[in-house]
Amino acid sequence: MQFVRRIISRCAIPLTALLLIISTQAGIASAATKVAVAPVISAQSRSALSPTNANDAFLRQLQREGRLARSVNVLDSLGQTTIVQFPLVPSSIKQAFPNATGLVTIVRGDRNNAFSDTVTVDVQNMPPNITFTIFFIQFAGKPFGNVEYVADLTTRGDGSGETIFQCIAFVAFAMDARNPGTSIDGQEGLTSGTNLEHLGMWFSSLEDAQKVLNDTSLMGTIFDAGNAPLHAGPQAMTDGQTLPVF
Amino acid sequence: MSIKRVFKAQWLLVGIMMLGLLVSACNSTSTTPQSAGTTTTTGGPTFPTSALALRAPAFGQQEAPTVKVLASGDPTLIVQFPLVPSGIKQLFPNATALVTIVEGNPAISVYDTVIVDVQNMPPNQKFTVFFTELSAKPFGHAEYVGDVITRGDGSAESIYHLIAFGAFAADARQASVTSTDQTGEASGIQLEHVGMWFDGVKAARQVLNNPSIPGTPFDGGGGALHAGPQVMTDGQTLPVI
Asked: Is B14 exposed, middle or buried (0-12, 13-18, 19+ CB in 10 A)?
């Protein structure tokens, strides 16, 4: 016991010194971090954090005028960015998966400098372990019209899934350059081609759809690439809107 | 005990503590590479010690001769092909572009990665990138993929994530329309070529010093036919993607 006391009494001074050194260094480091961050925040609060965003205001105006679907949320984004969100609802899977939900988020940076948009599709309570194709489409419901295949989404075992892709979304359009024609884009006015302003998800495999939906009479659709024709299944999720969602 | 001896003992103790810290820091598990092609397991993680075997994957039977299918690790597919100047050939004869398309595991990949690198192009200009049915006029069906904005030296790089190898155009009201792609007969009209266009006809007229250049549909947004002529093309009859 005496030995332990002796040790403690002899170590007290160096241990205290060590603790003092360590705490001093930590204090200096945290103070330095605060000093480095502080001016950045204050600069942001003066410029980029401005509450007004011309793009957001324009999109909200379109919504008020009935030119952008009510299901679209135009987020309060900073600077020159444009961020919209809208839900997807079950279409052909409604009976078997009534709680299926989808949320689409589209982000565009500066209109003049961005070279693509970023599209995030999040789904929940979908048929598990199934691959779905994602298309930009002319109409949200049948007959869908002109289409563009943009990506896939494969659900996990719990029916959730997420995919993120980077392509042109806000001004997506279809055309045959031999006769491009024109159409009215809600946000852009008269444009070349046929605007694709809706988003839908399809079973990439008809067999999967027939199995999941327990319906062998389902017909094949064009909504997947590659051999063979019409090997895709029915639409699973849709934005369900008549007015454009993007 | 004298003060001198107390201090001596304390510094001795500090020295021992520091030595202990040093030894414990150096005593972490480490793995060392052994002979090539083997893995080392010394209780920790296992690391490969030789390069992955590469194979040249099958891409299709009808790709253009300019397409290089890279030998890559299974199950990836990576193709590269050049773009050559079309509408800018006279003023920018040295313009070059390289397109790289990467598909991860074809069985599970959710999109392809498309990289477009350009050099010696008109500087500080914005160009659109399209997948097209045909590489030259009349181009046919087209899909707007993304933009490329050149720097002051005429170079630029853009990266997109979307369906490239399976890109097709379709009007779902005409579901019976089919065409042949690298996998065989498929729905819709295959888009198997890549081209770049001036995104504004005004810029094209200025750069090419030709005020009579007509507008084209190769850009999104308002108004109609505001894009300029094609600037780069894969120039092939057979598919490049």
From this structure: middle
CB proximity B1 to A under 8 Å = no
**Residue B121 forms part of a structural domain:** yes
Residue with the two structure tokens 């597919």: B77
Structural domain count of chain A: 2
Closest residue, chain B, to A12 (C-alpha)? B10
**Predicted structure pTM score:** 0.80
Domain that holds residue A215: 54-238
Asked if residue A222 and residue A206 are part of one domain, the reply reads: yes
**Banded pLDDT at A56 (limits 50, 70, 90):** very high
The minimal CB distance from A222 to the residues B175, B181, B225 is found for B175
Which helix (H) or strand (E) segment is A151 a member of? strand A146-154
Tell me if chain A has a CB within 8 Å of the CB of B170.
yes
Are the beta carbons of A151 and B110 separated by less than 8 Å?
yes
Task: Compute the nearest-CA separation of B75 from chain A (Å).
Answer: 18
Domain extent, residue B184, equals: 54-233
Specify the residue for token string 């007969």: B185
The pLDDT tens digits for A67-114 are 999 999 999 999 889 999 999 999 999 999 999 999 999 999 988 889
Task: Establish if B5 belongs to a structural domain.
Answer: no
The reply to whether B241 falls in a domain is no
Assigned token pair, B221: 């947004």
